[in-house]
Amino acid sequence: MISVSLLFFGIASLLVIGGGIGVVVARNIIHAALFLLVTMIGTAGVFLLALAEFLALVQILIYGGAVLIVILFALMLTRIEDFRQLGDNNQKPIAALISIFLFILITTSILMTDVSTSLISSVSLIDVGLTLFTDWAIPFEVASLVLLIALIGAIVLVREEEDKK
After folding, report:
1. pTM
2. Are residues 71 and 139 located together in one domain of the fold?
3. Does residue 100 belong to any structural domain of this protein?
4. Which of 9, 84, 91, 153 is most buried (CB neighbours < 10 A)?
5. pLDDT (tens digit, 0 to 9) for every residue of the chain, 165 residues total?
6. Alpha-carbon distances of 58 from 64, 87, 89, 134, 161, rounded to whole Å
7. What CATH number should be reported for the domain holding residue 3?
């Protein structure tokens, strides 16, 4: 009999692997972004299985929401003529060989490592929130400012090129 957690892990891993493959093979950039969202949802499912509810929530809100929206917003600001000039990449065989090598390396590392199977316990969200907003408040705000500056910079670059025409 398959346990519920094993079934949930199977579904989450299929979402991660299927979404990752979809990101790589999708020809349409919007479809690739949606496959990236599927991958992030599957990763949040894996975090839920590891009793990391806060990381699962962050995965959905920050990566699935904010980062994906920034990617789509940047695509809307980019001129389509720039993408039409790009051809197919001739480095696919090298990338495939490196990918296979890394897959074998990671798989053997996982199989050769002795993993302790002690019981895991959940950390309360109150403790995480207190730590985040006391010890990590400034780095969190700095990261948000860097993302905001990058977004404003992209808008300024696009606007300057349109003004020159």
Report:
1. 0.61
2. no
3. no
4. 9
5. 778 888 999 999 999 999 999 988 888 778 888 898 899 999 999 999 888 888 888 888 887 777 778 777 777 777 666 665 555 667 778 988 998 999 999 999 988 888 766 666 777 778 878 887 888 888 878 888 887 888 788 777 777 655 666
6. 9, 36, 34, 18, 36
7. 1.20.120.1200
